[in-house]
Amino acid sequence: MDIYVILLRNMVYILLSFICSAGLFVLYNRFPPAWFMERVGTEATQPKPSLLRKFPDGVIYISTLTLISFVFFTRYDYSLLLLCCLLSAVFLVMISASDIKTGLIPDQFTLGLIFSSLFWMAHDIFLVSNADKEWYEVFTTRILAGSIGGGALLLIGIIGKLLMKKESVGMGDVKLLFACGLVVDLKGIAAVIAISFILALIPALTGILTRRKFFDRLPFAPFISAATVLYLLFPEQTAMIFLFNGGL
Description:
The chain has 248 residues and is mainly alpha-helical. It has one domain. Helix content is 74%, strand content 2%. It contains eight helices and two strands, in the order αββααααααα. The chain has helices at residues 3-28, 54-76, 80-102, 107-127, 135-164, 171-210, 221-233, 235-241; strands spanning 38-40, 43-45. A two-stranded antiparallel sheet has the order 1-2. The longest helix has 40 residues, at 171-210.
């Protein structure tokens, strides 16, 4: 392909990614504040401001989503697979931002990620040729993957609570990993779980060794989200590491 065509195409990808990312940044700050509040009985508390500031929050948010979108564009071009990846990535970035800012994961964002999984199921049913997999198995395997992901994290949370005598895993993370299982299917859930804990290991160990209060509450959603995005970008490579035959 001509070098000028490639450059023009990439510039279009970057422009589209930036416009969408900037628009989603504005949209995020327009969501109802109640979404980012924890309700206990009739009272609502907001531990940290949920709004994203233009700097540095906005710069990080827009840059991250623009980069992810651009890589998806270059990898999958204009296709249903691209739409699936972008939809999932949008909600994963929103979930990560909320968990970092407030320590909470709005159910609305998790439901949005679950909604994006319907596009993955449609992709499998209509565009993936697999004689060994009936249409109804597309739903059952993804639901099973979600159950494995959410169930595994819930079990870890129960064990952690028994050992440390305090809450170690939030239900928001459990629901998030369930939704991620719907997105990545059985081929990817083991990789997502493993990569999530590997990514979280460095800051967790740093917090233990330095005893800094900054690490008292380590948001886990960004690591789950990053692991999911990594799998969507490199399904074969990440799945092969964990002895699965990868592929979207």
